[in-house]
Amino acid sequence: MRLTVSQQEAPRHGDMCTALSINHSGVMLSGGDDHAVWRWTAAGEPQSKIIEGESCVTLVSWLPGAGRKKGDARDAFLVAFANGQLHFVNAADGRVEKRIEAHQGAVTGLAWSPDGGTMATAGEDGMLKVWSQSGVQRSTLVTSTKSIHCLVWGADSPDYGGTCVLYTHGPDVAVKPLNPAVKKQLQWRAHNGTVLCASWSPMSNLIATGGEDGTYRVWDAYGRALFTSAASEYPVTSVRFSPDGEMFAVGSFMSLRICDKSGWTQCRESVPNAGSVMALNWTPDSTQVAMGTASGHLMLAQLVDRVFHWRNFRCSLADRNKLVVEDMTTKNTEVLEHRDTIIKVSIGFSHLIVATTTQCTVYAVERWSQPVQFDLRDVVVSIQQCERCFFIADCTLGIQVYSYEGRQTAVIKIGASIRPELLTNNLVSLSHDTCAIRDPADSKRIIFFDAINGRPIKDLQVAHHLDVLELALSQYGPQQDRKLAFVDRNRDLYLVAIHSRLPTQKLATMVSSAAWNDSTETLTAIADCRLVTWYYPSAVFVDRDLLVHTKHVRGDEDSGDDLGRNDHIIDFFGTRASVRRGSDGALLTFGVSPYPSLLFAALAKSDWVGAIRLCRFIRDNTLWGILAAVAVKQNELHTAEVAYAALEDVDKLRYMSRVREIPTSEGRQAELALFQRRVDEAESILLQAGYTYRAIDMHIGLHAWERAIKLAVERRAHIDTVLHARQKHLESIGRSTETLHAYRQAAQSAGKVDAAAVAEKVKQEHDKEKERGKPYVPPKGV
């Protein structure tokens, strides 16, 4: 990535330009120590001097929502001065509509809530005040003996009772809840000198700070350090996250740096004869950065040469509206020009998606000359692709699902008020049949929609005990086999089989990133600074002991493969996982074993003979573990026996052999369901097939005594069998008195139990099963 910087020859401000604001249309305001506020076009051309105040301008801000509609009454702005005043100004004619004596001394901080209904200010007097949108003071949130240097609005968090603000004083950063019922305040030492600037992204929920010590740092929302830059010769005078939360800009003496959200530098440009960069702001589409400098200039920097990869294709943004796509295998190059500025690019699944300010264009990599185009209604927040479709998310319509032919298949509505931070790729995941979203109203809940028609899937949701930070849907297999992996606030990784009633399973801890493979049910994650790959994570629902065989930890044998907690998995296609290193931005490629994909291909065709041959040829316990799990799941007993024998798991081998001897297919299915800890499913299979005795006997074997007697009473069968088994159990544990009321009541009704009669009834049940059942037949060729 690089920047192309443009500026006016002569500065419009007679002194330092210290304040910048950009509305939704891209129109800019700048204020400076010359007491003036200038208006600029979206192209960076000066329009007019709107006002000239009585003191130095410290901050300027459009009212929230300004620029969305032409002639909107909200096209007004707020100016803060060094004399402590706030002015509400009409942008059309420069008329000051209201003056407020906000602070004693300069106003140093000004922040708006996301909905625009609340404003917060901070000043040199050490006070932090909360105001209504019209300028009526609501409360004084902080009273300090130290001057507050900057103020930003924070992301919503249940730990802070909802909304909070971040402010800095001296070398410290503090997070203060606005909810008066929450008394706690988070504070930490951020820099070795005074903290001069800060920015908090609601999209990534990360905090960036810059200080007099010449460093910039990245923190999570709880004050934990994620990245610290090398100290430079000059102080960091400004930082600002982009609206999409993927980057932030850092201003210093005659330099501008663009950094990834994790902290590493994407590009750095010198700004000669500009002095320090005193103010920064981004255009709404996150493609340009505006700078206010100590020389009085307003400069505009365009981001170009952003690079995107997929398999053998390399796509680079050569100009604001031009993409260059290169096939690294054939060396063929395609130049794709667009009418408007390119905002978002996504490449994968043999398609390139390009979103500009007004249109979306879909290219197939086999035919670049025949793209599909359709119009957009709002700025695109995120794009995500899967095998058969993709979605585009914006704040007007929400999530819109399209086929690669450009046909809209579904619109997923997630609420009346859509905020962009709810539509990031971390919180929304798409497969060709399902869309998973973290509930906008409850960050601990995940809801699901049908990706084909956009309707909510009834009675299907995941409720967790902590906030969900990241989620991903599996891409392989039919809808009933769809899995969801999610990471919570403790950085624990969980797996959910969303279309079954199975309990959520924990896979790993200290997870920084996770991704599914595009063509197999393989999951990879960065856990405890290692790349961990689960070739068949669904084994945890079948036999958790198999999980260790189907998991590979890269780094156990290669000590040089340590990753960092700030590293992130970019994609996982085929047998390659791409990881972006958080320390320096290097793109690392890790290979995974190709043999599991061959095994999955054989299993997809029910080729059990071929699967066994492959496992015997490769001689890898990973393949045997996958084969055992799939065989048990699909009731293929002979293959399960072979796999467990190869794994030298004698107990489970004997169990599978015993299951094979059960005469009925329903009995075998129920026994395998019980093996997978699905007791209710096993009972349902037996009762539907009419095997009441086997269902009762199953609960007796599990010592589920209350369920056994309840089932016997409801079915009016084998009450004496249950009582006899219970009596023998009490004798074995040395207890003579019955403690369960249901058994005392049943014993009074049934009278004395005849052991010989019970044995005869059990024998008759076994004989009936043998008459009705069919013996197990292994697959042909095994």
Automatic annotation (TrEMBL):
Pfam families: Beta-prop_IFT80_2nd (PF23335), TPR_IFT80_172 (PF23387), WD40 (PF00400). Gene3D superfamilies: 1.25.40.470, YVTN repeat-like/Quinoprotein amine dehydrogenase. Keywords: Cell projection, Cilium, WD repeat. It is found in: Cell projection, Cilium. Residues 623-771 form the IFT80/172/WDR35 TPR domain. Its main location: other. SMART domains: WD40. This is Guanine nucleotide-binding protein subunit beta-like protein.
